[in-house]
Amino acid sequence: MRRSAPWSWLPVVPLLLVACMTGDDVENVQGMLSGGPRPDVNPVPRNASPPFRYPVSLYAQRVQGNVTLRIFIDTTGRVHPESTTVAETSGYGALDTAAINGSRELAFQPAMKDDKPMAIWVLYPVHFRHPDAPPLPGDSTRARDTSQPTPR
Hints:
Elements: H1 12-19, H2 23-33, E1 44-45, E2 53-54, H3 56-60, E3 65-73, E4 85-88, H4 93-103, E5 108-109, E6 111-113, E7 116-118, E8 120-128, E9 150-151
Parallel strand pairs: 2-9
Antiparallel strand pairs: 1-5, 3-4, 3-8, 6-7
């Protein structure tokens, strides 16, 4: 008789757990598997202008790029900078660093679920655009946003 590997029963464990769950438990597990519960209302930025500072040397060279940050917004709307990471790099370390540094100044109205504030992870895009440089592939043809990060 062939002996099965000691871990061969592991695929059965999720089935056993699901059989013992209530409807709320199943919803919570589905939320965890899909990235967490979804808010009824997404967080809304409170900043009057973007807090991102275009690195002066890259601005002078008309270097442009997009950085996507993964940020954690708590129930008060505060961003936890120690949790901020670059989810998608611009390809320029200085732009990535400027985006991370600027995220420390972000403030939000918190996300809401069932009329209660909720903490949430979000992907937050930061676009560094020089007013005299050509648009990047994927940029829209509409007028450029004048509230872009400023060189400092």
